[in-house]
Amino acid sequence: MNPTTLNALAEPNRLLIIELLREGPLSVGEIAERLHLRQPQASKHLKFLSEAGLVEVRAEANRRIYRLRPEPLMEMDEWLESFRGMWEERFDRLSDYLLYLKKTGSSLKPKEEFK
Amino acid sequence: MNPTTLNALAEPNRLLIIELLREGPLSVGEIAERLHLRQPQASKHLKFLSEAGLVEVRAEANRRIYRLRPEPLMEMDEWLESFRGMWEERFDRLSDYLLYLKKTGSSLKPKEEFK
DNA sequence: CCGGAATATTCTTGTCAAGGAATATTTTGA
DNA sequence: TCAAAATATTCCTTGACAAGAATATTCCGG
Asked: Residues A42, A35: contact at Cβ < 8 Å?
């Protein structure tokens, strides 16, 4: 997994940009407007995202249209793959947990133990 | 998606810690040793990861054993879910791409267009 | 209850990057 | 060719945080 990708996504406004672009390519001005950013900050974040490989640009007349690149997200997906065993394992114990809740009427987690 | 999780994982050593803990819980000393970190830095990173909810601790004798918490990773997984359509769509065009390679003998990407 | 092992905290220093404001650059249409 | 729209860049200040070194704390076994 590439820390550069994570770093780029760790900034809240950049994360919002990525989520916005999920719906389709947009110009800088549109991105700035929809996220209530000033244009220079939008440009700066887009440059950052671009250098991280998360977006790509194309020029169209006066505008610059930014679009998502799926590759880094695919890499994240593959990285997470190696962890999926963990929560499937825990899911096996879910029925026990539900039973516990039913018995106690509690909505609090039981103190978890592990070894 | 929570930026806190991404921020915690964006630091290379912390990412390594998470990958190491994938194999099972470890003490601070073991983590420091296996990643060639000094003990104080290991402790600091673990504190950071702990506050981000990525790990949990338990005391055992003299040691503190850290263990992965799957929840934030599950959240990442669900977040990525909303992007999976993207690369599946692109996958549909793979056969065209392979055909292109065969025709041209080129190993270079054709210039991609999008609108 | 004391010494030492394991771990945590504090302090300092350097780097990175975010936001604001101002300005430069690019590009198009008239 | 020029003005204006769209975008990029620069400069500044500020805050976060990583690493190193030193020190504090915790806790077990003897």
From this structure: yes
- CA-based nearest distance B10→chain A, Å: 5
- What are chain B's domains? 1-106 (1.10.10.10)
Give yes or no for CB of B61 within 7 Å of strand D: yes
- A90-94 LR contacts (CB < 8 Å, sep 24+): A90/B70
Q: How many CA atoms lie within 13 A of A58 on its CB side?
A: 11
What pLDDT does B19 receive? 98
Q: Please report the pLDDT score of residue B79 as a whole number.
A: 97
If one counts every other C-beta atom within 10 angstroms of the C-beta of residue A13, the result is 16
Q: Which of residues 42-61 of B touch A (CB under 8 A)?
A: 56, 58
Mean pLDDT for the stretch of residues A17-33:
96
